[in-house]
Design a protein that fits this description.
Blueprint (H helix, E strand, L loop, with lengths): L1 H28 L13 H24 L1 H26 L5 H23 L7 H10 L12 H23 L4 H24 L48 H15 L25 H4 L14 H5 L4 E5 L2 E5 L7 E3 L7 E5 L2 E11 L1 E5 L2 E10 L2 E5 L2 E7 L5 E5 L2 E6 L8 E5 L2 E9 L3 E6 L4 E5 L4 E5 L5
Parallel strand pairs: 2-4, 3-5, 4-6, 5-7, 6-8, 7-9, 8-10, 9-11, 10-12, 11-13
Antiparallel strand pairs: 1-2, 13-14, 15-16
Helix pairs in contact: 2-3, 2-7, 3-4, 4-5, 5-6, 6-7
Length: about 475
């Protein structure tokens, strides 16, 4: 009798193993990342590990070769991807929880995104700012786990946001330091491989296990009883994966826009209202004054989008640091001026609102970043004038400039001089752009820059041209 019972138990064990194997095979065939046999890793998690050991490892190694802020940033990205691996592993062993619990599960990934983006904001003065910006602009791609239907295209969109800055890195270092070129290649390949991973395992959205317990409310704390779902915690904040900027009031925008137009339309007379700064008041000629103009460094709060009020509280700054003129955090200031310029110098204008800046002489380049209702008047630029992430910008050229670049900007008026009519104007992801060409002594003729295009196949190639409605 004992021998018969032993044989019966062995037969039952074999049947159970065959049943588990059939369930696993069925789950894999349906694209479901179910448990591996005997607690082994699923194909889904193993594929993610390949991504970590490949592109992510290369990216971290190249970041260490560059060092400084880039290396620290890379460690943050690595930690974020490790957290996402933990989340994906939980997905393969648990059923989808309620929306409230899911928000709590996603919060660690959201926190990593906040930390990475905030690191960029705290290091705006870094010489490696383009590297930090490339990562900061694309890291929301980790939020694909919260995107239903088409998470793959979402990751591609985030990756495209990084290329604006990676192209800058390539331009600056392609003939100087190969490490930076390899860094760009390895970083972009992370999101390329991520798209392939999503297409294979989560094509139409995150795929949860069809069996097992309901997922717990915490990613790093196991539930007290695996057989029953955890009690729902108090409602938490939703994961931060989007950047929604508040829109200004239409009336105020029109009024202040008209005021800026009037300021810039003065032409050469605009200098009459500017305040003259004597030599003993210039920070680049009096180093002891820099301590009064430089804002006190404080620990940046860990948030994706620092509150507008906190940004505006930073002390205004206008001074020369090395070869860079910094113009930052000015409000309602229409007599800003930079003179005594040199050909090798650049001007970086950041977070200036409802202000006017004049630049005298000939300089290398000008960058306007994150400004609103700003008027810029300059004489000669030998490189490029770039306008990025800004709104309601007025630019007047008094001399010459070879290239003007407009990116992610809403509302930009460019007044060209007779000597600058041959300049190239490049725009992307921008709207309400107008170029004003001089006619006569004091008049300008306005031409809108196309925003809408039509593309057709002519039998051998694609032909793209602006639509009539777009100008």
């Amino acid at each position: 009798m004992d021998g018969l019972m032993l044989r019966l138990e062995r037969a039952v064990t074999r049947l159970e193993q065959v049943s588990v194997t059939m369930q696993a095979s069925s789950g894999m065939a349906n694209g479901d990342c179910v448990n591996g046999i005997d607690g082994g890793l699923t194909q889904c998690v193993e594929a993610f590990d390949l991504l970590l050991r490949g592109p992510v490892s290369d990216y971290v190694n190249h970041s260490r070769a560059i060092g400084s802020e880039v290396e620290k940033h890379a460690e943050m990205v690595k930690d974020a991807l490790q957290t996402q691996r933990t989340f994906l592993k939980l997905v393969t062993t648990h059923q989808e929880p309620a929306q409230t619990e899911l928000q709590d599960l996603l919060k660690p990934i959201s926190d990593h995104i906040q930390e990475i983006q905030n690191f960029r904001e705290c290091n705006r003065g870094s010489s490696l700012f383009n590297h930090l910006s490339a990562v900061s602009e694309s890291i929301p791609a980790l939020g694909w786990v919260a995107v239903s239907q088409k998470p793959g295209p979402y990751v591609k969109e985030m990756n495209d946001s990084a290329t604006f800055y990676t192209n800058r890195v390539l331009k600056d270092y392609k003939d100087i330091d190969r490490h930076h070129v390899d860094w760009v290649r390895s970083y972009l390949s992370i999101w390329t491989e991520m798209q392939a991973f999503i297409k294979q395992h989560h094509t139409t959205g995150l795929v949860w296990s069809k069996s097992g317990p309901i997922a717990p409310s915490s990613l790093f704390e196991p539930p007290t009883d695996s057989s029953t779902p955890c009690p729902p915690p108090p409602p938490g904040p939703p994961p931060v994966f989007t950047d929604n900027d508040s829109q200004p009031q239409a009336g105020n925008a029109v009024a202040q826009h008209s005021a800026l137009f009037a300021q810039l339309n003065q032409g050469m007379d605009i200098t009459k209202g500017l305040k003259h700064v004597s030599d003993d008041e210039k920070t680049h000629k009096n180093p002891n004054l820099r301590s009064q103009a430089t804002p006190t460094k404080t620990k940046c709060p860990v948030t994706v989008n620092p509150p507008r009020a906190a940004v505006q509280k930073r002390a205004p700054l206008l001074g020369l640091e090395g070869k860079k003129w910094r113009v930052e955090n000015f409000e309602q200031k229409h007599d800003l001026m930079i003179e005594d310029t040199e050909l090798k110098q650049v001007v970086y204008v950041f977070n200036c609102n409802n202000s006017t800046l004049q630049i005298k002489g000939k300089i290398n380049s000008i960058i306007i970043d994150n400004c609103k209702k700003l008027g810029l008047v300059f004489e000669n630029v030998v490189g490029i004038v770039e306008i990025i992430n800004s709104k309601a910008i007025q630019v007047q050229v008094l001399g010459t400039v070879p290239t003007i670049s407009i990116n992610k900007t809403e509302g930009c008026q460019v007044y060209l001089s007779k000597d600058s009519l041959s300049c190239d104007i490049v725009s992307a992801k921008s709207s309400e752009m107008n170029i004003l060409v001089p006619e006569g002594d004091d008049d300008y003729r306005e031409f809108p820059v196309p925003e809408q295009f039509k593309t057709v196949w002519d039998g051998s190639k694609l032909v793209t041209e602006p639509t009539e409605i777009a100008g």
